[in-house]
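Q: Hi! Curious about what 5'-3' exonuclease looks like structurally. Here's the sequence.
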Amino acid sequence: MLMIVDAPGLWFRSFYGVPSSVRAPDGTPVNAVRGFVDGLATLIRAYGPSELVCAVDLDWRPQWRVDLLPTYKTHRVADSGEEEAPDELGPQVEVIVEVLAALGVPVVGSAGFEADDVLATLAARASGPVDVVTGDRDLFQLVADARSVRVVYIGRGIGKAEAFDAAAVRERFGVEPGQYADYAVLRGDPSDGLPGVKGVGDKTAARLITEFGSLDGLAAAAAEGAKGVTPRVRTSLAEAAGYLKAAPTVVRTVADVPLPEVDGTLRAEPADPVALEALSARWGIGSPLGRFRAAVEGVPASS
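A: Let's find out. The predicted structure is below.
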């Protein structure tokens, strides 16, 4: 089984989830590094992948998405124009990438695209079962029982990770995975700068998408005066027409971005033992690296 990880999501959660008092021998903060490595070890123990790949943002806020929806992730933009992030996190991300290289875990990105698009492409390419690890709810759109693609949702933390198949998505949100993007557009998502449609919350959005199948089906029903669309909702849809035309392309992942071929096979021996030992000593991360190695060695060969 292939496990593909939203690496930025995991290192942000690690940074905030592990105390900043966790430091290297020289006093440098390594809370995100330790949390990230321990998080991977926990996931490997829990789900038993035979392959592991980390996806990263080479463009966290692609201009083509901003052109369609100017509010997209606006609240996350720092004065520099880059993504707002704690000063102590950036240097740790560099260490995380070095550690992954020494371990032999591929780190993959694509110019002009987000990690979400990389995850979608890797999932589409896979020939066997896939677990997509993320705290981004929009990626529930990737769930596909026919291709054995699940989302392991870590929005509440690694310790409370939940594996979602299609039935779990239906139970939690009231829509099919393939309808999730339209549902998200309709109800909105402040974390991504999606305003949604005025007066349409989670339950109403789920009902409308389920009843009419999609945003296009809903628009057609509203235009025809269907009973399932109240006058208030019909007015709100009309007022949000421009947003509803642009936002679906923003929310839907791109599943064919340019990516190299990658071999994510988990092996007991690191790709670069010398580099890994140096990183372990420099940053004082021997314990989490030991837990990672132990988790990998515990993966059944047939998984």
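A: A fun detail: The radius of gyration is 21 Å.
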